[in-house]
Each structure stands twice: as C-alpha cells, then as structure tokens.
Amino acid sequence: LADAGLSSVLPLAPLTGDPGLITALVEHWRPETSTFHMPFGEVTITLEDVATLTVLATDGDAVVVDIQDEDWSAMCLRLLGRAPTNLGGSVIRIAWLRETFDELPLSASPQTTEQFARAYALSLMGGVLFSDRSGGSVHLQYLLLVEDWRRAGRFAWGAAVLSYLYREMGRSALQMTTSSSLGGDFGGWSALLMIWTWERFSHTSPLHAETGAQITQDAATWPSVASGQHPSAWRSVLPVKAVV
Fold it and tell me: What is the pLDDT of the chain when averaged over all its residues?
C-alpha cells in the first residue's frame, strides 16, 4: 500500500460521514462552479487541501482504467487468487472481500501477501475513496489499478479523489432540489469533506468526549486524531462528538 501511495489513507479510513454536516454542506454546493456558496462568498476544497489533509499525491499520472473485454472471474483468480462463486458480473461485494481476506496467514508467500493487499486496496477504493450508492459493492475495474504496485505509485490519487467528490457533491445537490434530504444517498470520501470543514470552520470540529472542549488540530495531525476512532464514536449531530 505504501508503494501504491495509499498508506496515508489508513488512519482516516475508520471515519464515517456525519449526515447532518454533509447535508448542510450539500445545501450550499453549486455544481455549476464546484464551490460552496456561503453568505460571505464562495469556497471550495482544493488540491492543496487534499495534499495537506490526506497526504495523497495530487500530481502524477491520471487514475484511468482501460477496460476491455474482461473475464472478471479470471481476473479475480489472477489478482486475488480466488473469486466469489456467485460472481455474475463486474461488481463484487465488499463484505465478501473482508470475510475472505480477513487475516493474512503467518506463512503467507509474497504472492499471497500481494493478493491480500490488493483485496484490501479494492475495499478501500470501493468503500472509502470512491464509494458509491450501491450499498456495499465495488466495481472490479478498481482492481486493475493495483495490478502493478509501481504503476499505482505514480497515480495522482488525491486529484482523482477530489474530482470524484466534486461529481458526487453535484449529484447530491441536484437530488436535493427535488427532495428535502439526501436520505443517506451520498457517494465520495465523506471523511475528507468532514476534515476539510473542521479545518476551515473550526466551530464544527469535534468535541472531546470527556472534557467537552473543542479539538483544534494542525491540518497534518487530523490523521492522528482519527486513528483512535471507531465509527460508532461519531454522532450524527452538530457539533460532531469524538473520542480521542
């Protein structure tokens, strides 16, 4: 994962989105300009924000998948070493990945280790970085991105994550023009959106669960706060509660 440039995501992966905070932000998002329209003006998440908050690369090769006539079951066997028995297309359940590749055997060969790492990277992309509205599934196209670890290390992951989040914010904003709420229908890396908000609007940052004091952090230290979190520690109200 370090070779692929994805290891900095691990401390932030347990964070879950706060529905109240995300809904409030989507209400201010304008797809035409990809900015939040606030009473004081326009603001947005920039590539510099992504690089600072997540340490993901924002300069490098474009994250593009060249999909041809793939035999998805054969690809799973080649890159993961196994495939679901009921795989009927190009989508795989994240729950199956987590159950099947739950613990790396102590005597694992280098090939098996790479297969487990690919499975984890696939669940990370489908469940965190490029999460969609499928309800726990991930497209196997992402598996091709970590077929070659050295090539993966040249990708501008941060730019891809931000552009994907922009698109999902736009979709959600358009949805809210016909509905009063998101209804849990939101894709993209919600934790990035939350951490950016805490950094730029300090009154929304987490409160210490025991002291009730506002948690203020330098941008580079948010991962250290997140690393001790369990998803259940984050409440769906403002301001967000956290245990540190």
Answer: 81
For position 65, what pLDDT does the model report?
Answer: 81
Cα(43)–Cα(46) distance, integer angstroms: 9
Indicate the range of 8-17, 21-30, 62-71, 183-192 predicted with least confidence: 183-192
Q: What H or E segment, with its residue span, contains residue 165?
A: helix 157-176
Does residue 207 contact residue 173 with C-beta atoms inside 8 Å?
A: no
CA distance 26 to 139: 26
Token reading at 143: 């598996």
Pairing mode of beta strands 137-139, 91-93: antiparallel
- Whether pLDDT at 235 is above 60: no
Q: How many CB atoms lie within 10 A of CB 54?
A: 26
Q: Which residues pair with 91 in a beta bridge?
A: 139
